Amino acid sequence: MPYQTMRSSFYVDAMAVISPHLKQTNAGYSYSGDLSDPLVDAPAHLLDGAIDIANYAASHAADVDCVGGFPAKEFERLAEAGFLIAPLHSDRGGSGLGFQSKRIGITLQILKQIGRGNLSLGRVYEGHVNALQLVQTFGSLPQVRKFAQDARDRKIFGVWNAEAEDGVKLLPAGEGRYRLTGSKTFCSGCGYVERPFVNGTLPDGGWQMFIVPMEQASVKVDPDWWQPPGMKASASYKVDFTGVELTAGDLIGQPGDYFRQPWLTAGVIRFAAVQLGGAEALFDATRIYLQNMGRIDHPHQQARLGKMAIALEQGHLWLQGGAAQVERYAPVFGGLPGKSQTDPAQLVGYANMVRTAIEQICIDMMQLAERCIGTRGLLPPHPMERIIRDLTLYLRQPAFDIALTGVGEHVLVQTEPARELWS
Ligand SMILES: Cc1cc2nc3c(=O)[nH]c(=O)nc-3n(C[C@H](O)[C@H](O)[C@H](O)COP(=O)(O)OP(=O)(O)OC[C@H]3O[C@@H](n4cnc5c(N)ncnc54)[C@H](O)[C@@H]3O)c2cc1C
Asked: I want to staple 54 with a disulfide (CB 3.0 to 4.6 A). Which of 117, 155, 223, 383 is the partner?
């Protein structure tokens, strides 16, 4: 691949679980909401809907498994079932997926199911959830209103943060205007995502968030840049934004807001949920294969399936642990900065554990599945080969080493006994 990501897009999958009721003012954050959460009981129908759509996506995944493919019909179903507006706060007609702390458990289950159906679909939908959280956290009221309407109009959002040496810069063009130069890489959902965050560097080095309305922008898309072994249907192309003009009103939040912790790193539990969905699909496919082959009485196959079941359950428990940490950090609406009783470093450390553990679980699941099914099971039309290709690529998320050493760094400076590390 000719380009290397210069800026660590460890931050790409950041999650801002902070409430839309929290508004940054010149004096810092102010809170304008009611502390009661009308949505404590998460809407189970959303999870049921996600399972149905995932089943359809799984049956259709081979059809879109090509460069140039995209799960467009699946997105139509997601839109139809209300998933494009689900990340909006209930005040705006949504279900508070993602950003309301008591919604995080169901958000992760939904992401896992969508990932089970098709990892490319999960990748793009996770970006949609992330982007709407960022808008509602850092956007001004008019921006929140505008983009909430866009979500209601079924526009897909995304976060295109990764870039190579020729990354995006905002050049002041006078009268509060900016002109963009440079490109983004790995722009998932390219051609379908109409409201991407295309963060870029200001002349003083600040990292500024903004959304480009793609139908109004003239950009140069390089689909040939995307020649991957897996995740083909995620349409993660390179896009050159040179020449696109913005006004100051298009900028979202303050420079550096994107990197605010702990929510930036806490967001990794969302992509881990999608990845675990791929492992779940592999489990199902492997078991069906063995059942169809009449190979379920073999003790070695039984031992491998036993290990796979254990690994999968560990993944589920990690997600539950991650959700519990989010709720513990921000038990009401998620994240009054400085008001939480819990150290934000604890949430960051725990999220890094979730991501690291689930990556290993997925790797173990792939190896076990391959040994179960052998060569024949890896040939299409059996779905295992595609799921393994997709999962192998999607597991490559940025800054793996930093995540792991970050956990070690965190626990090494603690002094309380091990039993209290995450309590
Ligand atoms: C299917 C898919 C879809 C994607 N979609 C999007 C998207 O929509 N938007 C977006 O912004 N991004 C997207 N990405 C990009 C993604 O977030 C990562 O930026 C990308 O996968 C790069 O990962 P990497 O493994 O090359 O990362 P790297 O960070 O390069 O990591 C590779 C290895 O090098 C190590 N490493 C990192 N930095 C250093 C260093 N300085 N010195 C030594 N070692 C180092 C890491 O710890 C790791 O072990 C997507 C990626 C994939 C695979």
From this structure: 117
What's the gap in Å between 307 CA and the centre of ligand 1?
A: 29
Measured from the CB, is residue 99 less than 6 Å from ligand 1? no
Q: Is 404's pLDDT higher than 80?
A: yes
Query: pLDDT, tens digit, for every residue of 285-315?
Result: 999 999 999 999 999 999 999 999 999 999 9
Query: Where residue 91 sits, what CATH number does that domain have?
Result: 1.10.540.10
Tell me whether residue 405 is in a domain.
yes
Closest to 201 (Cα-Cα) out of 221, 162, 171? 171
CA gyration radius, the chain: 21
Ligand 1 atom nearest residue 8's Cα: 29
Name residues whose C-beta falls within 8 Å of residue 87's C-beta, 6 or more positions apart in sequence. 94, 95, 96, 97, 98, 99, 128, 129, 132, 133, 151
**Judgement on whether residues 204 and 146 belong to the same structural domain of the protein:** no
Q: Which atom of ligand 1 is nearest to the CA of 162?
A: 11
State residue 3's pLDDT score. Answer: 29
CA 392 to ligand 1 center in whole angstroms: 13
Say if residues 238 and 232 touch (Cβ distance below 8 Å). no
Name the residue with the closest Cα to ligand 1, atom 46: 399
237 and 346, same domain (yes or no): no
**What pLDDT, on the 0 to 100 scale, is given for residue 43?**
67
More confident residue, 261 or 302: 302
Mean pLDDT, residues 253-260 taken together: 94
CB distance 229 to ligand 1 below 6 Å: no
Give tens-digit pLDDT for 132-162.
999 998 999 999 999 999 999 999 999 999 9
CB 334 within 8 A of CB 323: no
Number of structural domains (the chain) is 3
Alpha-carbon gap, residue 317 to 88, rounded angstroms: 27
